[in-house]
């Protein structure tokens, strides 16, 4: 194998790794973010406390240190996770801490009249949340989620430190090998931008359209 | 069990009211009863020892200046506000309280949910669900809360939207409707739960004047065609006079005067009532 094929393969592998970790961690972040955000507005104070502790930990400490913790410290307690598991869960949980606050704020921003109408129609708390409040809150929280997911994409470069070669490290390696730093870092920059533009933005746009039904007059939209 | 029944009987036997209520309008067995109910925010008393009985199918209007506590009466009955003292009864059951070990204790959420199923409410600002069409607005609660099938709920919702004259707007979202149309959807939505009591909280106050009539017509029709107890807070004196069996004038957290509309509007006994009515009439 000549060196240029080798570099191209490494870059492609790195790109694929970054994509997979981004998708996996995004799924974890969205699911946990909505769950913890929902618990954060629970009527039971003990639940609220647990959610606050979760948010404070994941939002208040460094992502890299969290990854080190799961990867290097947990084995001392008999829990050994694969680098991929740590990468996907670790980044996902970190972003879910921010996401939970976004979810809380969005739920609390729904007009109080919606809550009152739900009580008057005798909805259970769960049904009210699922059918009335969340669909409206999701619409409000989508732009913030778009930011979080782009941030998440860029944070995936940290998985290199727990032994996974990804886009940034592959580019660095290619640059080191060839000495052509300008080319390979330009490729890396552009790749991150393209993933954000072609993956995250359309997802957020599509969701916004889906959840904006009834909010904008069709003629204007 | 028999003990708890006799205790309910005891509480029910308490004299409900020491206000001068017209005996013809104060039946032995009210459908809704406010018994010594008080509501305070901190040191501010919104409602002071309210006693009010409403008979099955009676139409009662509540009028009074702003801040007199009239909207709070409806909100307490809908359990949107917790009361500080007293008990509210609906259909012979305590709403705000429940029996536990032979004692009346504050009701749990589950108990309140069961009893308030008999009550429907329409709000000043409609509070329609913006992400649902008119039809979906009317179907959601019957499906989620009553467990109706989608077909049953849709048939019921369609019939009610026809009844309020919006058969052609079923697929419209609230933002595509006028204020009067939104309020009619809100009425249909409340009716889809088959309530026995309907509460109307200043339902025409947020409407342009030319849209008031269409909403009042729907309420008139409801009163004429359905067995419903109705309690409404309103600024539409003409409508209150024409539609109600009884009008209650609230002032400073108390019922200052109440009676049949002809009497209350035609020959008010209380100075406050006279002042209020003349101010309202002057304003046109």
State the main characteristics.
heterodimer, A: 221 residues, mainly alpha, MetI-like fold, 8 helices, disordered C terminus, B: 284 residues, alpha/beta, 4-stranded antiparallel sheet, 12 strands, globular, disordered N terminus
- Which strand-content bin applies to the residues of chain A? under 5%
CATH topology of chain A: MetI-like fold
Q: How is the CATH topology of the largest domain in chain B named? A: Rossmann fold
- N-to-C CA distance of chain A: 54 Å
- Tally of individual domains of chain B: 2
Task: Give me the strand/helix succession of chain A.
Answer: HHHHHHHH
**Total strands of chain A:** 0
CATH architecture assignment name of chain A: Orthogonal Bundle
Q: In oligomeric terms, what are we looking at?
A: heterodimer
General form of chain B: globular
> Cα-atom Rg of chain A, whole angstroms?
21 Å
Largest sheet of chain B: 6 strands, mixed
| Radius of gyration from the alpha-carbon trace of chain B, in angstroms | 19 Å
The fourth-level CATH homologous superfamily of the largest domain in chain B is P-loop containing nucleotide triphosphate hydrolases
Helical content of chain B (DSSP H or I, runs of 4+): 25-40%
Show unreliable segments of chain A. Answer: 217-221
Explain what the structure shows.
The complex is a heterodimer of chains A (221) and B (284). Chain A is mostly helical. Chain A has one domain (3-211): MetI-like (MetI-like fold, Orthogonal Bundle). Chain A has helices spanning 3-40, 45-60, 63-73, 83-109, 112-120, 125-155, 167-178, 181-211. Chain A starts with a helix and ends in a 10-residue tail after the last helix. With 284 residues, chain B is of the alpha/beta class. Chain B is 38% helix and 24% strand. Chain B has ten helices and twelve strands. Chain B has helices at residues 2-13, 70-77, 109-116, 134-144, 150-163, 179-191, 209-225, 237-243, 261-266, 271-283, and strands spanning 32-41, 44-54, 59-63, 85-90, 93-94, 97-100, 103-106, 119-122, 197-201, 229-233, 246-251, 254-259. In chain B, strands 8-9-10-3-11-12 form a six-stranded mixed β-sheet, sandwiched between helices. In chain B, strands 2-1-4-5 form a four-stranded antiparallel β-sheet, with helices on one face. Chain B is globular. The model of chain B is unreliable at 1-27 (pLDDT under 50). The interface between A and B is medium-sized, with 23 and 31 residues.
């Amino acid at each position: 194998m000549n060196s240029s094929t080798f570099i191209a393969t490494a870059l492609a592998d790195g790109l694929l790794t970054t994509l997979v970790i981004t998708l996996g961690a995004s799924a974890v972040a969205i699911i946990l973010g909505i769950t913890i955000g929902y618990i954060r507005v629970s009527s039971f104070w003990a639940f609220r406390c647990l959610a606050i502790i979760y948010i404070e930990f994941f939002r208040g400490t460094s992502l890299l240190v969290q990854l080190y913790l799961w990867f290097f410290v947990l084995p001392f307690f008999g829990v050994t996770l694969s680098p991929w598991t740590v990468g996907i869960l670790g980044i996902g949980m970190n972003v879910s801490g921010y996401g939970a606050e976004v979810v809380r704020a969005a739920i609390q921003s729904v007009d109080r009249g919606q809550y009152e109408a739900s009580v008057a129609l005798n909805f259970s708390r769960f049904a009210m949340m699922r059918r009335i409040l969340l669909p409206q809150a999701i619409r409000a929280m989508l732009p913030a989620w778009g930011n979080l997911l782009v941030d998440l994409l860029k944070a995936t470069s940290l998985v290199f430190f727990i032994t996974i070669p990804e886009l940034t490290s592959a580019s660095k390696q290619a640059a080191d090998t060839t000495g052509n730093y300008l080319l390979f870092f330009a490729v890396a920059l552009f790749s991150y931008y393209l993933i954000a533009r072609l993956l995250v933005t359309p997802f957020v746009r599509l969701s916004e359209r889906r959840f904006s039904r009834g909010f904008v007059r069709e003629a204007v939209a | 069990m028999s003990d708890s029944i006799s205790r309910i009987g005891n509480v029910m036997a308490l004299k409900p009211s020491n206000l001068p209520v017209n005996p013809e309008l104060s039946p032995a067995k009210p459908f809704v009863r406010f018994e010594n109910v008080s509501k305070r925010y901190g040191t501010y008393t919104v409602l002071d020892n309210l006693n009010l009985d409403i008979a099955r199918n009676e139409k009662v209007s509540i009028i009074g200046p702003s801040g007199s506590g009239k909207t709070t009466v409806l909100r307490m009955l809908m359990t949107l506000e917790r009361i500080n003292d007293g008990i509210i009864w609906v259909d012979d059951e305590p709403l705000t309280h429940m029996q536990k070990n032979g004692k009346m204790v504050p009701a749990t959420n589950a108990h309140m949910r069961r009893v308030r199923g008999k009550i429907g409410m329409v709000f000043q600002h409609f509070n329609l669900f913006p992400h649902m069409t008119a039809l979906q607005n009317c179907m959601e609660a019957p499906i989620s809360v009553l467990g109706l099938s989608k077909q049953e709920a849709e048939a019921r919702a369609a019939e009610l939207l026809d009844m309020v004259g919006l058969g052609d707007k079923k697929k419209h979202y609230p933002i595509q409707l006028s204020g009067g149309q939104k309020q009619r959807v809100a009425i249909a939505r409340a009716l889809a739960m088959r309530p026995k009591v309907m509460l109307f909280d200043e339902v025409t106050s947020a409407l342009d004047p030319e849209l008031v009539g269409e909403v009042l017509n729907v309420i008139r029709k409801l009163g004429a065609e359905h067995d419903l107890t109705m309690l409404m807070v309103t600024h539409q004196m003409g409508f209150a006079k024409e539609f109600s069996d009884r009008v209650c004038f609230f002032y400073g957290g108390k019922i200052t005067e109440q009676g049949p509309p002809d009497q209350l509007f035609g020959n008010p006994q209380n100075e406050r009532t006279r002042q209020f009515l003349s101010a309202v009439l002057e304003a046109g």
